[in-house]
Design a protein that fits this description.
By secondary structure, this protein is α/β, with parallel strands linked by helices. The chain has one domain. The strands form two sheets. It has a six-stranded mixed β-sheet with strand order 1-8-2-3-7-5, with helices on both faces. The chain has a two-stranded antiparallel sheet with strand order 4-6. A hairpin with a 7-residue loop joins β2 and β3. The protein is globular. The chain starts with 5 loop residues before the first helix and ends with a helix.
Length: 151
């Protein structure tokens, strides 16, 4: 993916619900997610992707080591890492997490993405579910949205 397209895709990404528990400073963390994407060209169809992002125990991050931090995110991971490294090189001196996307499942729902989000959030509220992320993003950039969320 051309790096000039990444900011536009990221700007169209919305975190509708962040989990109460964030990344652990001294240990591994698992965050379950639900990505909702309207399907281009198909009115009232939403792709729902569910899975988990697992971060390893953090170390010290350097700009050069950042490029190898994402595993299982598809072809856009390398482009995203290059873009972040180029855009924020001077700021990338922090804790280093390795992220692994696992357990990915996807399905298409016959409903508008906003309605799917409303129902999902209402269901999570009713059941007291606080440990899952719900993210709305463009269908073609779901891996970028997920990587952005992990940062």
């Amino acid at each position: 993916m051309p790096s000039e397209k990444i900011p536009g895709f990221l700007a169209r990404t919305e975190v509708l619900r962040a989990p109460k528990r964030r990344l652990a400073t001294f240990g591994a963390t698992r965050i379950d997610y639900h990505l909702l994407s309207p399907i281009d060209g198909l009115a009232d169809r939403t792709r729902v992707r569910e899975g988990s992002v697992v971060s390893s125990r953090p170390a010290i991050l350097t700009p050069d080591s950042f490029k190898e931090r994402f595993e299982g995110f598809g072809d856009d991971a390398e482009d995203f890492a290059r873009w972040v490294s180029a855009s924020y090189r001077d700021l990338l001196r922090a804790l280093e997490y390795n992220f692994r996307n696992q357990g990915l499942a996807a399905r298409v729902v016959s409903s508008d993405a906003r309605l799917v989000a409303e129902k999902m959030l209402a269901d999570f509220d009713a059941r007291g579910v606080e440990d899952r992320a719900v993210i709305r993003c463009p269908d073609g950039a779901w891996t970028l949205a997920l990587m952005k969320f992990t940062l």
